[in-house]
Specification:
The chain has 70 residues and is mainly α. It has a domain at 28-70. It contains three helices and no strands. The protein is elongated, with a radius of gyration of 23 Å. InterPro entries: YjiS-like. Residues 31-63 form the YjiS-like domain. This is DUF1127 domain-containing protein. It comes from Gemmobacter denitrificans.
Amino acid sequence: MAAYDTTRTAPFGAISTYRFIQFVSGIFGGLAAWNDARVTRNALAKLSDRELDDIGLCRGDIDLIGAGRL
């Protein structure tokens, strides 16, 4: 039985292109996460103290939730 070596090198520029696309998608992912946190903080800031208490939060927790630490 014959064995064939099927390992091929990547075409010229393929790895650089892949890393560039990863870099750009990382930037867009970071912007999307920042915007989601901003929208969450704004929505929680509009709630009254009573409404925040109903869901188990206080005003000081809003920034922690937006930063993903709570």
